[in-house]
């Protein structure tokens, strides 16, 4: 295992590599085809390098633990807007998630419906390409005038275009108050309809999820709003009126209990330790119940108003044929190596898009040494 501690050492290691490299951050998200080759850890590139609360920006080395970044922001009364998921419970992994790993996988959570994905808050990156060249793109402001929008390309590339050494984010203030509207007993269709009414209302919903079988086994639909206390109180009251047709609504105002509810959604804790493969399906929210019915899942969690579906299915089963005719894509997030070798982990790209992806990899990794085969 190579363990560089500076960007210069990282560049030297990649330039001198004579075979495939398996890029590792915290090792908590082993999603994709098992990548072979020599291990290259970026955990040694760690530390928050710049935090400017007044400018709403933070810059950190890629190997910095996510917890350190979040603690730094919390001390300044701020947070990452996109609420990154922690995969450890779902995937049964150990270690510490890194901020570079979050970017490499474009990890986003329930607040994506309001704040966008990880890549939407990412304003700058430094990385080393497959030749060993250190490259900078973006900066500490929301502006990019390069030919390629490399900031967006790197987010979600799983280390196949370059190895991140530094990332910069636009951050937001932490809210003063939170309210979660909870409705029990809805079927999937009515739940998604309720979530849609909340999301299309003027009341700035920051979370919209449905669990057909919650902790007590009953269906639970949740809508979250955040902000100034008076605003949250007003919006919660108005949403209660708007959603009255769906039955009794309870409102959770305790921030700790609300945070626990949304951590369970964010981290898909309902499937932690459960036997079976886990798929992440993205569809139009109104198509969510139809997609779930088509695949016959053993367990389901709806997020993003029904547009993101986490599905627990029997091991070794490809669900994509069952979703034929429903626009969207499906990613195999948790399965054994045999299944990952037999079923495309990432949704197959259309011909033109696949050609563009292959061209980018040739441009930035002409030797094909960075996580080769991980994305198919």
Report the principal-axis shape. globular
The structural domain count equals 3
CATH architecture of the largest domain: 2-Layer Sandwich
Proportion of strand residues: 25-35%
Straight-line distance between termini: 24 Å
Mean pLDDT: 93
Summed up:
29% of the residues lie in helices and 25% in strands. The protein has 376 residues and is of the alpha+beta class. Strands 3-4-8-6-7 form a five-stranded antiparallel β-sheet. The protein has a four-stranded antiparallel β-sheet with strand order 11-12-10-13, sandwiched between helices.
Task: Tell me what the structure shows.
There is one protein chain. The chain has helices at residues 7-16, 66-75, 88-91, 99-104, 112-115, 118-121, 150-154, 188-199, 229-242, 255-266, 288-295, 337-342, 351-364; strands at 21-24, 38-41, 48-52, 57-61, 78-79, 122-128, 134-138, 163-170, 172-173, 177-184, 205-211, 220-227, 249-252, 277-283, 299-303, 308-313, 328-334. 29% of the residues lie in helices and 25% in strands. The longest helix is centred in the middle third of the chain and has 14 residues, at 229-242. The strands form 5 sheets. The protein has a 5-stranded antiparallel sheet. It has a 4-stranded antiparallel sheet with strand order 11-12-10-13, sandwiched between helices. The chain has a 4-stranded antiparallel sheet with strand order 15-16-14-17, covered by helices on one side. β6 (122-128) and β7 (134-138) form a beta hairpin. Residues 141-147 have low confidence and may be disordered. It is α+β, with helices and mostly antiparallel strands.
């Amino acid at each position: 295992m190579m363990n560089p501690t500076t960007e210069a050492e990282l560049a030297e290691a990649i330039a001198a590599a004579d075979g495939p490299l398996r890029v590792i951050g915290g090792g908590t998200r082993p999603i994709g085809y098992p990548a072979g080759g020599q291990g290259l850890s970026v955990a040694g590139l760690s530390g928050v390098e710049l935090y400017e609360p007044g400018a709403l920006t933070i810059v950190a080395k890629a190997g910095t633990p996510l917890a350190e970044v979040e603690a730094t922001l919390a001390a300044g009364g701020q947070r990452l807007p996109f609420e990154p998921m922690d995969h450890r419970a779902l995937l049964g992994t150990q270690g510490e998630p890194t901020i570079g790993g979050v970017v490499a996988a474009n990890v986003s959570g329930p607040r994506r419906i309001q704040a966008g994905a990880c890549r939407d808050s990412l304003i700058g990156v430094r990385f080393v390409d497959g030749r060993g060249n250190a490259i900078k793109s973006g900066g500490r402001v929301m502006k990019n005038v390069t030919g390629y929008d490399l900031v967006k390309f790197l987010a979600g590339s799983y280390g196949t275009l370059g190895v991140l050494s530094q990332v910069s984010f636009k951050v937001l203030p932490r809210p003063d108050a939170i309210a979660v509207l909870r409705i029990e007993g809805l079927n999937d269709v009515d739940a998604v309809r309720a979530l849609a009414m909340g999301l299309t209302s003027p009341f700035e919903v920051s979370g919209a999820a449905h669990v057909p079988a919650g902790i007590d086994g009953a269906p639970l639909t949740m809508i979250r709003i955040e902000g100034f206390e008076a605003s949250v109180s007003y919006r919660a009251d108005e949403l209660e009126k708007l959603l009255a047709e769906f039955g009794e609504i309870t409102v959770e105002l305790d921030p700790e209990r609300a945070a626990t509810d949304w951590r369970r959604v964010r981290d898909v804790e309902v499937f932690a330790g459960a036997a079976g493969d886990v798929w992440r399906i993205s569809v139009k929210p109104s198509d969510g119940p139809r997609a779930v019915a088509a695949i016959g899942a053993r367990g389901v969690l709806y997020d993003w108003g029904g547009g993101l579906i986490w599905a627990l299915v029997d091991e070794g089963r490809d669900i994509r044929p069952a979703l034929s005719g429903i626009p969207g894509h499906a990613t195999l997030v948790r399965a054994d190596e045999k299944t990952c070798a037999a079923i495309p982990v990432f949704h197959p790209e259309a011909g033109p898009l696949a050609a563009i992806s292959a061209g980018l990899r040739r441009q930035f990794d002409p030797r094909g040494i960075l996580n080769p085969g991980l994305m198919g």
